[in-house]
Amino acid sequence: MKPTTAVLIAGTAVSAAVAAVGIARVRQEKRTHADRTDIAAARVQMDWLTQVATNQDLAKLWAPEDMSAEDYMPLLHANRSLCALTLINRLGLISEKQRTFYAAELMKNKTVRAYWDRFGGLRAEEAAVGKDARDQTITAILDQAARDYPAAA
């Protein structure tokens, strides 16, 4: 092999390696940006839930027509817990076994079950039209935990 051919091959290999590192870096930056966006959106939602769950005047404005603010407020606290689980799932911070465990633990709480009975279908619809399959997965796990609760109790 001629020295110039060897240099060209080596240069090509180095260029390919640099390109691969660059592509990996771009993918990581994209993932980090998506995580930050998820965290920011969750923070906005959690803040809103906290405000409405702790302010009866706001709860009156947002409660479904057939529900009093007093009945609605505890359900919003339950929703905060479910949103937290959804976020840590979306960020990939928990395993499949942990998702199932946490969902079952949440469903042991009567307020969480009341929330799920009332709004679980809406959450399933929301997950179905969303772009993130992880939301569909955690919603299905929560729904299964709700259905399994009486048997586990």
Describe the protein's architecture and organization.
The chain is built from six helices and no strands. With 153 residues, it is mainly α. It has one domain.
Radius of gyration: 23 Å
Low-confidence region ranges:
none
Task: Kindly report the oligomeric state of this protein.
Answer: single chain
Describe the biggest sheet? none
Shape: elongated
| Percentage of residues in DSSP E strands | under 5%
How many strands?
Answer: 0
Structural class: mainly alpha
Q: What series of H and E elements makes up the topology?
A: HHHHHH
Portion in helices: over 70%
Tally of helical runs = 6
The total number of structural domains is 1
N- and C-termini, Cα separation:
75 Å
Kindly state the mean pLDDT as a whole number? 88
TL;DR?
The protein is mostly helical. The chain is 87% helix and 0% strand. The longest helix has 52 residues, at 3-54.
SSE topology sketch:
Elements: H1 3-54, H2 56-62, H3 69-90, H4 96-107, H5 110-129, H6 133-152
Helix pairs in contact: 1-2, 1-3, 2-3, 3-4, 3-5, 3-6, 4-6, 5-6
Features:
153 residues, mainly alpha, 6 helices
